[in-house]
Amino acid sequence: MPGVPFELPPYPYDRLVAMRERAAALPGGAVDLSVGTPCDPPAPAVLEALASAAGAGPYPPSVGTVPLRTAYSEWFRDRFAVEVDPSQIAACIGTKEFVAGLPHWLRLHDPSRDTVLYPAVSYPSYAMGAVLAGCRAVPVPMDDRWRLDLDAVDDADADRALCLWVNTPGNPAGGLDDLAAAADWGRARGVPVFSDECYAEFTWTGEPAAPGLPPGRSMLESGSDGVVAVHSLSKRSNLAGLRVGCFAGDPELVHFLSEVRKHAGFMVAGPAQAAGVAALGDQVHVDAQRARYRARLDRLAATLESTGLTVPLPDGAFYLWVPAPGGDAWSLVERLAAELGVIASPGEFYGPAAADHVRLAVVQPDDRFDLIAERAAGVTFS
After folding, report:
1. How far apart are CA 368 and CA 126, in angstroms?
2. Are 185 and 215 in contact (CB under 8 A)?
3. Which domains, and CATH codes, for the chain?
4. Residue 8: its pLDDT value, please?
5. pTM check: above 0.85
């Protein structure tokens, strides 16, 4: 009997075409807050490093250049007070390709397991990576503060797990998991834990990794055995278009994954790696970006609350996670587009458990939030 061809689901954000058209019809056009694409310029020193980089000709090392891995090592020390040897760090092309491809590579490492555990309300690529690898995608329930409830994981699923994904601060809801507890959970069960920490620089609450640092934690603070932290410069340094990230931690896992990726031809462009070194060496531009995002979160929350919506501020990341009146997220998305010209994402993009919320990313210039505030005068959503 012939097999059934795989049929891809629609890409979530492609489902917003009608909303984009409706919002674009308003004077001033659409304000797209649906995708977390940074809009602010990279630091001048980063652009200078990119423009002057030698190395566009030869193949760059797949694992990452020594300067890039050293820069990441120094950044982990300075930002999270943890020592990570450059040999425990490897480059990736941003992090989305790593997230989506990981289950495929892990099945080569342990073909006896077939399950990916991931937060029930989360970035869609965790589940899609499992699907693309022919694995089981099993969501982990979350509590009322959008944190993983690891006690709810079935023992049978844990026994089959290739990995557990943790995302802190979380996308879309901004929750902060107990990273040390997640690491302990994985070690006790022999399940590798992958910690997606790409929003760590934009953590608003909680204790810092060390005195004098802004809030923000890494799972590597609890050691590297059985865990891998995943980081990206896309959000931290407004470098989404360059695709520079890293995975770091357990020496055996990092070595295996970097060797597989070498065979598959994954490599970050040489000039992009040089720009990454410059970005990691400068914390000033990150502090400025933190201030921008926090101001935009506060402002947009106040604007939306003036319309009658309840808008809690997140513990981390740069998204507002808004409960929809009556639990009807699509209705709120439609009204935001029609009346405020705002493109937002319905919660179902991030899992069935989120179908009654709407996500808004504060990734537009400040004058676009002026426009939203003007349009919101006299509008009521409650």
Report:
1. 31
2. no
3. 12-36+285-376 (3.90.1150.10), 44-280 (3.40.640.10)
4. 79
5. yes
